[in-house]
Amino acid sequence: MSDRTDIEQVRARLDIVAVISRYLTLTKSGSSFKGRCPFHKDDTPSFVVSPEKGLWHCFGCGEGGDVFGFLMKAERLSFAEALERLAEEAGVRLTRSSSGELESLHEIMDAASKHFQRSLAQSPRAARAREVLTERGFPQETWPRYALGYAMPSWDDIKRKLVPTFGLPSLVSLGLVVRTEERSYDRFRDRIMFAILDLAERTIGFGGRAFDGTPKYLNSPTTTLFDKGRHLYGMSWARDALQASRSAVLVEGYTDVLSLHVVGIENAIGSMGTALTQAQADLLGRFADEVIIAYDRDAAGGAAALRGMTVLRDSGLDVRIAVLPEGNDPDTLARSGGAQGVREALNAAVPFHRHFAASLRERYDLTTHHGKEQALEEARSFFAQLRSITLRSELIDELHDLSGLPRDELRRDLARRRPRRQDRERPPRPPDAWDEETVLIAMAARGLTAWSELRKRVPAEAFSPRYRGVVALLDDAGDSGLEALGGELAEDQAQALSRLTLGELPFDPDNRELVEKAVHDAVTKLVDLPAIEARLSALREQIRRCTTEGNREQVDALQREYSEHVAKRRSLARQPTKGDEDARAHERPGDDPTD
């Protein structure tokens, strides 16, 4: 097996530019190198390599990662295979056990899984975990079937249990124990544990769900056995149902998969995140012809989810989207509506290009020229990812129905290459116009000092769902920096890492004043304004209730407070919004906020 230091030695000895130059032509561009991406049709150089940071990213198709990730994608290798090949080139002798290495690794993971399961079933300290699982619809008799467990709160429980038999290096290499220069400790602590199994029902990794704090879910890192981007949760349990129906129900999380299985939807599997990879699509294609994606509304509309849907569709799979009832994810729908409620949603699933078009209708005002242009800008990026001629034609039909624009004009417009954001010459955006990703790029570029200041004031839940995985990445990086995470990340995480680290900013990241302004504006956008909106919503409800009850004195007091919050919101939000128009309506003399 390979020690963590082996990976770092290989990375340190290799020139990432030299390795990647064997596959494409790179030219110097400042401190980085640029070229045409080998993973999609790239008309202008979108592929950026940073030798200083040891990362690459394509700003056209979104792929990215470190030198291991590039070789894995270019040569279709596993992480272990890429490491072995690059180690030989770098002159690093990998730490290896006997010829029965894989069997011993599986033995260790099996022992860890059984220990977590015993802790859940027997330990007094697992009472809270037992209560949570039971309340969420997973009675005790289901726990062994799905290998559910509990990681004790102590820092050395798994160490004390397994190190005497298997040794510390083995546990570190499998991600069960984290080792620093000063000490070593259990990776998973005080978490409900979900064992991730391969098709032979052998434990290859774990996901741990926290009761409180962040990250809410913590996965095993990339190891010889486990690569998050190459596996799907629940495949071993769903295998027979997939082969029988040739149809898969793809959900996002561990409990989503389990809840569907409990109510009888046995062809459900989980992506362990929203960004589907080619390796996962290839795995699904072995067992199914159709994939019904049942993410919650926020996740299904995210850019990462749409890229994953494109990967599936371009792999020859029919892809449909099940739009779940408002406020539901597959877990809550299964518990409230049972198998019938889930099947109704699945039966109503629509082709994913129609889902994309419908999401444009929901998010943009297509009765205005500005709204149409915003929708078309997003459609251009989506259209460029589609290789299927049939799918492109169907999308054009959908956009024609949405916008009323002629099909021929839409086809020409969508096919035309548009300059990427970093290629456009424009003045720096004012701080109040920064989006979440730009703020995160600023934090990553500055190092973790400003990020730490921001995280003290902004909980992970304050970010929109599409960015919470990035927040968890930054949390996991700690003081070691983002680059140190490269070898441990799944494909979608590596893409986020490279995009953040290599993303360009409209200002100098060493300008402390601007970075501090970014932190201030992020707190305003993510914490202060949402808190005001929540209070205004509560006040409207109270005003309606008091008006109905005829309590005029209380209504007057509530309206005064409402006006104060509207004024505060206006002072914080420089750009007028729909909410501001609503607030002005409430401020007009004689207007009744209960209407």
Question: Can you walk through the features of this model?
Answer:
- This protein is α+β, with helices and mostly antiparallel strands and 595 residues long.
- It folds into 5 domains: 4-90, Zinc finger, CHC2-typedomain (DNA Primase, Chain A); 101-226, DNA primase, catalytic core, N-terminal domain (DNA primase DNAg catalytic core, N-terminal domain); 230-348, 3-Layer(aba) Sandwich (Dna Topoisomerase Vi A Subunit, Chain: A, domain 2); 358-418, Pheromone ER-1 (Up-down Bundle), CATH 1.20.50; 429-595.
- It is 52% helix and 11% strand.
- The chain contains 25 helices and 16 strands.
- It starts with a helix and ends in an 8-residue tail after the last helix.
- The model is unreliable at 418-433 and 575-595 (pLDDT under 50).
Main sheet characteristics: 5 strands, antiparallel
- List the domain count as a whole number: 5
What Rg is obtained from the alpha carbons, in whole angstroms? Answer: 26 Å
Return the structural class.
alpha+beta
**What percent of residues are in strands?**
5-15%
What are the low-pLDDT stretches, counting only 5+ consecutive residues below 50?
418-433, 575-595
Strand line-up across the major sheet: 1-2-3-4-5
The rough form would be described as: globular
Count of helix runs: 25
**Number of beta-strand segments:** 16
Binned, the helix content reads 40-55%
